[in-house]
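Let us work through a complete example step by step.
Step 1: write down the sequence.
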Amino acid sequence: MGVAYFYHLTRRPLNETLSMLVGKSRQAGWRVAIRGRDFGRLAWLDEKLWQGGEDSFLPHGMAGGAHDAAQPVLLTTATDAPNDPQCLMSVDGAQVTAEEIAALERVCVLFDGNDEEALNTARGQWKALKDAGASAQYWSEESGAWEKKAET
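Step 2: predict the structure and record it as tokens.
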């Protein structure tokens, strides 16, 4: 059974934190789906992920291509990623279910702590997943380092 990790971003931008988490997931041998709600925003993240240095190269693709199933990291708005991920990264309020958390190794929910709407969406997700019996951890970078602040 997996765990959802909620990442409250206050110091680093989404693209930097996402790159770091995807890199760690790939080191664990996991295929990753990055789920967003807006294709344009995912295209922006796609560009940012390609701009990383050689030491942080993350092979990935945007959903809708001929080789989606072969992508180690796939950016998508769909709830059923064809690359058979073990890890799901939810950005910009993309929904995650308790069933997905149970089926995957890890689910990461990244949200901007400087955006009131993003905070409220994440709080709603936390409550819904907790009420559904999913395991979740809340992580904050407020102190400058990632610290676990809560766990269900």
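Step 3: interpret the result. The chain has one domain: 3-151.
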